[in-house]
Design a protein that fits this description.
Layout (H helix, E strand, L loop, with lengths): L9 H27 L13 H8 L7 E3 L5 H6 L4 H9 L32 H14 L6 E6 L6 H12 L4 E7 L2 E2 L2 E2 L11 H5 L2 E6 L3 H16 L5 E6 L28 H11 L5 H23 L19 H10 L1
Parallel strand pairs: 1-2, 2-3, 3-7, 6-7
Antiparallel strand pairs: 4-5
Helix pairs in contact: 1-2, 1-9, 1-10, 2-8, 4-10, 5-6
Bound molecules: thiamine diphosphate.
Length: about 325
């Protein structure tokens, strides 16, 4: 939600941002462990991208619409999506908004203006542009956001979306969460120039930002969102971060990657945030320990509760195929059930 930082509220807004980052990190570690225990099928962690996502989220209004990708747990947490909603999707249980029909990490959270994640990367970008066109036509004061990784900039959909958004001067912000890799392919095998430089080719503003620094990302996002909201057109933000772990729980980065970023190191965005907030006098070691402890309890408790929810009834697979069930669906339903 938009959190215009001023002298009065800066401490609260920044500590809330830090708390969301910690909760997301705790959540990621829990889910990766749960996957190894066979309790979860698959997961795409956001470890290393927390500052990018939270800094960006701080600049958005609740009415803004997000066409997110599969790695945006910190963004969802900061925007207020309950942990239960995220868990239900990952577990594909009967409370999952998608009724267990999507693979894990393909979130939807309609109430919080998160659209559904799609598996083919960058297909969310033209959808975001189309939505922005429609919303402007309806004279709505809504900014539309598309998030994606550096690898997604190699797809035709990225170029089509950027071009259309610029030509029609649409209220869109493109956030490239540049974690340096597209599974095993490094960014320098995706592009010869900086991703932010590509914006110029389409006639839009490009901003490169340190995505490990939530305050810098927040400022860049405020600029981009303000441009979109005031009719100045789309912006591409290239937020540079590190993918601290594997691409997904199906990936083994030791096969292709030698360097690593350790948790707690000076490159870890959560360490960066702790240093920043300590020097501002907003955090100290005991508050940090308390926030971390509470986040472990929240995640463990919610995991244990959501894990007990059964999968959707088989009959629900015939729901929502069409607005009204036609004879084909009814016949299939009768055959199977
Ligand atoms: C169009 C398409 N091509 C290939 C894939 C397989 N794939 C899934 S994730 C991924 C890497 C995407 O990397 P990036 O966009 O940088 O995002 P990251 O996962 O690094 O955050 C690929 C190639 C896909 N899902 N869709």
């Amino acid at each position: 939600m938009t959190e215009m930082v001023n002298e009065q509220n800066e401490k609260d807004v920044y500590v809330r941002a830090y708390t969301a980052m910690v909760l997301s990190r705790t959540f990621d570690k829990k889910i990766v462990t749960a996957q190894r225990q066979g309790r979860i099928g698959f997961y795409t962690p956001s470890i290393g991208q927390e500052a990018t996502q939270v800094g960006f989220s701080m600049a958005l209004d609740q009415k803004d619409i997000i066409f997110q990708y599969y790695r945006d747990v910190a963004l969802m947490i900061h925007r207020g999506v309950p942990i239960e909603v995220i868990l239900d999707q990952i577990m594909g249980n009967e409370e999952d908004e998608s009724k267990g029909r999507q693979m894990p990490s393909h979130y939807t959270a309609k109430k919080y203006n998160f659209m559904s994640v799609q598996s083919p990367v960058a297909t969310n970008l033209p959808l975001a542009v189309g939505a922005a066109y429609a919303l402007r036509y309806q004279k709505k004061d809504t900014v539309v956001v598309a998030t994606f990784g550096d690898g997604s900039t190699s797809t035709p959909d990225f170029h089509a979306a950027m071009n259309l958004a610029a030509v029609f001067n649409l209220p869109v912000v493109f956030l490239c969460e540049n974690n340096g890799w597209a599974i095993s392919l490094p960014t320098d095998k995706q592009t010869k120039v900086e991703i932010s430089e590509k914006a110029a080719a389409y006639g839009m503003k490009g901003i490169k930002v340190d995505g490990n620094n939530f305050i810098e990302t927040y400022r860049a996002a405020m600029d981009a969102v303000e441009r979109a909201r005031t009719g100045k057109g789309p912006t591409l933000i290239d937020a540079i971060s590190f993918r601290m772990g594997a691409h997904s729980t199906s990936d083994d980065p030791s096969k292709y990657r030698s360097e690593s970023v350790e948790e707690g190191s000076e490159k870890d965005p959560i360490t960066v945030a702790e240093d920043q907030l300590k020097s501002l006098g907003y955090l100290n070691d005991s508050l940090i320990a308390k926030i971390k402890e509470e986040s472990v309890k929240i995640v463990n408790d919610k995991f244990d509760i959501q894990e007990k929810i059964p999968p959707p009834e088989p009959k629900t697979m015939f729901d929502d195929v069409y607005a009204e069930k036609n004879w084909i669906i009814k016949e299939e339903e009768d055959d199977i059930l």
